Amino acid sequence: EPEVTQTPSHQVTQMGQEVILRCVPISNHLYFYWYRQILGQKVEFLVSFYNNEISEKSEIFDDQFSVERPDGSNFTLKIRSTKLEDSAMYFCASSEVGTNEQFFGPGTRLTVL
Amino acid sequence: DAKTTQPTSMDCAEGRAANLPCNHSTISGNEYVYWYRQIHSQGPQYIIHGLKNNETNEMASLIITEDRKSSTLILPHATLRDTAVYYCIVRGSHIRDDKIIFGKGTRLHILP
């Protein structure tokens, strides 16, 4: 069964450093998303992406965040200058045209020291 | 904010049916009810969704009341692997790239 994959599974970085989280959505899906979950809290929407542009973004998704689909298979989330409060699980999701069922990846645990 | 109300936690014996309630009294006519679950440290997993008719798939059944103000997710024969947080979500569109707004969900413990 096709699945969303994410790398790395765990990323440790120093405050102020840039990180790039990578996702490979399901191959025939055209809608892509990033969510995050701070430890012990709710899963929060960050951004949705379709046709090579952002469809919607939340208040969390400020100028420090960016997304990109650099090729036909990868979807990335970049945090330019990480803060302690960026420590969280980051989940990528994708869905196909005609359905609103989102498939989630296993997540990347980001730890900012 | 989430438009649904769910109990914080529930227990169910292994092999029994787990019935998870959800209130969504402010749901509007074009909004669907979706259920996702999140097993510890994993990404959320889609379970089922419906508009007004009851739905069943290989994972669960969804019972929606006639006034659509509440629903129940039924796991017919719960196993230990069904221990997870279950999210009831009301979403505005069936075909667009609508974001998911997660609430706190119900933490379901399956007891051996």
Explain this structure to me?
The complex is a heterodimer of chains A (113) and B (112). Chain A is built from no helices and eleven strands. Chain A has 113 residues and is an all-beta fold. In chain A, strands 2, 4, 5, 6, 9, 10 and 11 form a seven-stranded mixed sheet that branches. In chain A, a hairpin with a 6-residue loop joins strand 7 and strand 8. Chain A is globular. Chain B is mainly β and 112 residues long. In chain B, 0% of the residues lie in helices and 45% in strands. Chain B contains no helices and nine strands. Chain B has strands spanning 9-13, 18-23, 32-38, 45-50, 55-56, 61-64, 70-75, 84-91, 106-111. A five-stranded mixed sheet of chain B has the order 1-9-8-3-4, with no helix packed on it. Chain B is globular. Chain B starts with 8 loop residues before the first strand and ends with a strand. The mean pLDDT of chain B is 92.
Q: Tell me the quaternary state.
A: heterodimer
Query: What fraction strand of chain A?
Result: over 45%
Strand content of chain B: 35-45%
Instruction: Give the SSE string of chain A.
Output: EEEEEEEEEEE
Please tell me what the overall shape of chain B is.
globular
Which sequence of strands runs across the widest sheet of chain B?
1-9-8-3-4
Please render the helix and strand layout as text.
The complex is a heterodimer of chains A (113) and B (112).
Chain A: E1 5-7, E2 10-13, E3 19-24, E4 31-37, E5 43-50, E6 53-57, E7 65-68, E8 75-79, E9 88-95, E10 103-104, E11 108-112
Parallel strand pairs in A: 2-11
Antiparallel strand pairs in A: 1-3, 3-8, 4-5, 4-9, 5-6, 7-8, 9-10, 9-11
Chain B: E1 9-13, E2 18-23, E3 32-38, E4 45-50, E5 55-56, E6 61-64, E7 70-75, E8 84-91, E9 106-111
Parallel strand pairs in B: 1-9
Antiparallel strand pairs in B: 2-7, 3-4, 3-8, 5-6, 6-7, 8-9
